[in-house]
């Protein structure tokens, strides 16, 4: 039996080039595949090469973006455009919520994994354009862990991947014990401002972070909570959401 190899599309050409057939012996065959090529194999003498549209052109991430995660039966578990660096953020159906937060994004890793890199102790998912400077980030948050649970939203985050532990930026944290903290690092050690917020676990709250030039301010449930914090660590970077530790927490209306 002969398998007819119809052709390949090279990275430098839009033409399909014919290739010699591949001989099959005793039900097995071998085929050397090169990178940046598309192959079509068929057992039919009437077979034809496949067709597909050109990929979309690269373009910047939109400057105005929102997601309410309202997908009843998602064909995948992770929300588009969010890039989890530590932890796992998945679509979640919150059946215990009778209001506007039935469909949410939930951080679901509750124990630090065994890793081969210096991952952060916090769960974090980044989104947006690394060149972003002046941004307003708002997100509804729901702390599930009482007493010592916590979540954050952030802007101008400058590291990911194996370097995520050393991420700098502007991080706006709220905790289940009713406190808040503003830090310039993901680890939460470089505290720029802190105080009482009244936030509690198992209740929805809206966080808003404004970054303009070298100054930052934050609001809770539509009311100013802190302002006039100087941004000195980073001049641009991604937006992010995350948790204080490996814990359940939910996010909505990002």
From TrEMBL:
Residues covered by the Glycosyl hydrolase family 59 C-terminal lectin domain: 84-254
Domain Glycosyl hydrolase family 59 central per the UniProt entry, residue ranges: 1-47
InterPro entries, per the entry: GH59_C, Glyco_hydro_59, Glyco_hydro_59_dom
A single GO molecular function term of this UniProt record: galactosylceramidase activity
Membrane-spanning segments: none
An annotated GO cellular component: lysosome
PANTHER family for the chain: GALACTOCEREBROSIDASE
Protein name listed in UniProt: Galactosylceramidase
Gene behind this protein: GALC
């Amino acid at each position: 039996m002969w398998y007819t190899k119809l052709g390949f599309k090279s990275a430098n050409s839009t033409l399909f080039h014919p290739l010699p057939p591949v001989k099959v012996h005793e039900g097995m065959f071998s085929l050397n595949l090169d990178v940046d090529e598309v192959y079509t194999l068929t057992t039919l003498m009437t077979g034809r090469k496949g067709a597909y549209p050109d990929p979309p052109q690269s373009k910047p991430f939109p400057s105005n973006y929102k997601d309410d995660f309202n997908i009843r039966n998602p064909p995948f578990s992770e929300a588009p455009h969010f890039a989890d660096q530590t932890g796992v953020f998945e679509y979640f159906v919150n059946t215990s919520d009778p209001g506007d937060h039935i469909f949410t994004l939930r951080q679901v890793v509750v124990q630090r994994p065994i890793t081969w890199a210096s991952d952060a102790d916090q769960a974090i998912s980044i989104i947006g354009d690394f060149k972003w400077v002046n941004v307003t980030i708002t997100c509804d948050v729901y702390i599930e862990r009482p007493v010592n649970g916590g979540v954050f939203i952030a802007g101008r985050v400058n590291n990911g991947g194996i370097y995520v532990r050393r991420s700098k930026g502007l991080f706006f944290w709220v905790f289940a014990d009713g406190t808040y903290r503003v830090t310039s690092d993901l680890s939460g050690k470089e505290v720029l401002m802190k105080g009482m917020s009244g936030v509690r676990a198992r209740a929805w709250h809206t966080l808003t972070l404004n970054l303009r030039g070298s100054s930052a301010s934050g609001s809770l449930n539509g009311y100013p909570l802190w302002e006039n914090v100087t941004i000195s660590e980073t001049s641009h970077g991604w937006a992010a959401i995350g948790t204080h530790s490996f814990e359940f927490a939910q996010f909505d209306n990002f």
